[in-house]
Amino acid sequence: MRILTIALLSFVLLACQSESETNKPNATEEKQAPTSTATPKKSDDHAGDDHSGHAHAQTDQPIFSELEVQDQCAQPTVIEFFAYQCPHCYKLEEHAKKWLANKADDVVFISVPTDLGRQEFTQFVAAHYVAERLGVLEQIKPLLFGVIHEGKQINNILEAFVEAGADKAEVEKAFQDVDYIKKRFDEGFELMKRYKVSSVPSVLVNYQYMTDVSKAGGYDKVFNVVDETLAKPTKCTDFSKP
Questions:
Q1: What is the DSSP code string of 130-150?
Q2: What is the pLDDT of residues 86-98, one digit of tens each?
């Protein structure tokens, strides 16, 4: 079981230039449909990137897979599985933003981050869940991506949250609530396990249809597939656990 150690006053996100360069997608990567392996696990084993054999051009493979529904949805639901250190998740983010700006009001969008079993990125996932809880995820998420992929720095995570519009006392309280953060980690882990998410970025629609960059045929096509599957019949509205 993952043990979270979160000390707010010493929680400083520093950009590592060498790591940023390593994680930036290069021209070759952008021409291939890329994923980072994301088999859910609670150990600290490192999961590497898998760039082999995935062409962006549309292939004969289906643009989405249909899964067994295991959760109920009261509204249309889109779930993105991603890792902050994943360059391909970073690349997809701009398309996610465009889609979010135009999505139907009744569609629920959920972000599920993973550290891919790497402790050095656990703090990013923790910050994500705190930002989500305080209603400032839209402002904080680009900052977290920016540390890794753009060489930016967050010298004081508390100040960053306050500048994003959160109350200082509430930020401190949220970061100190280790039980809540651990609960969110565990929920994300279980959801990935339940739907056998093996790579990121992946997008699950209505707990029934799964797509990714490879299946969709490119970064710019992922959310076209999301819209297509949102229009399909879904079993999640009638699902009830035994």
A1: HHHHHT-HHHHHHHHHHHHHS
A2: 999 999 999 999 9
